[in-house]
Design goal:
22% of the residues lie in helices and 35% in strands. It has 202 residues and is of the alpha+beta class. The radius of gyration is 16 Å and the shape is globular.
Length: 202
């Protein structure tokens, strides 16, 4: 699907501010559950509109992968579509929920959200065998125009065979290593802002 024609999952900023507080706080946010946010009125908007309209927030599943006390770290390449992220390190596999995730019958918004969560995981990684997954909270960055139109939902995924996980190079992301929380924080200037926020949950 053409990136500009993609229809992405959004919630009105006003509704989120009623839930989180107004204005929306920056950083790692505890509080509302994933169900709380998905129970708000939701929309699928053309990505070409949503990327430039801060009256809506695109909801982005953002998954961290942990083995014992270390976390999966990768580097973003030059073809990822967001100039501000090129070359940055990340601990989060994430992406948009799009309207194609709703093509199968579902009882609830949470169902197609979870389908998108798993789809993103499988699109970007090989062999990501997850034995436990926990929702941790939200990440928000109002400091730039990209952050102003996205809200990250952070999920922690425990894996049992980390040595088998690989990035898919056609996604233009490249494995760096398994790092401790302390190593990530010590090198935070190399990471995208969402990763710096997300590690605060750990």
């Amino acid at each position: 699907m053409n990136r500009e024609q993609e229809e992405v999952f959004c919630v009105r900023r006003d509704d989120l501010e009623a839930l989180f507080g107004s204005p929306l706080p920056n950083g790692a946010l505890k509080g509302p559950t994933i169900e709380d946010v998905l129970d708000l009125k939701t929309f699928f908007l053309p990505r070409s509109k949503a990327e430039h309209d801060p009256s809506y927030k695109q909801i982005i599943p953002y998954q961290l992968f942990r083995s014992d006390r270390v976390f999966f770290v990768y580097r973003r390449g030059e073809k990822i579509g967001e100039d501000r992220l090129i070359g940055r390190l990340s601990i989060g596999i994430g992406g948009h929920v799009n309207i194609l995730d709703t093509c199968r019958p579902h009882d609830h918004t949470l169902s197609f959200y979870r389908d998108a969560l798993i789809r993103e995981r499988m699109e970007e990684l090989s062999n990501p065998e997850v034995v436990r997954e926990v929702f941790l909270g939200w990440i928000n960055d109002e400091s730039n125009t990209v952050g102003q139109v996205h809200l990250g939902a952070v999920h922690l995924c425990d894996v049992i065979r980390p040595e088998e996980i690989r990035t898919k190079t056609d996604e233009d992301i490249y494995f760096v290593g398994w790092w401790t929380k302390e190593e990530i924080k010590a090198n935070k200037d190399l990471f995208e802002s969402w990763s710096v926020f997300a590690v605060e949950f750990i």
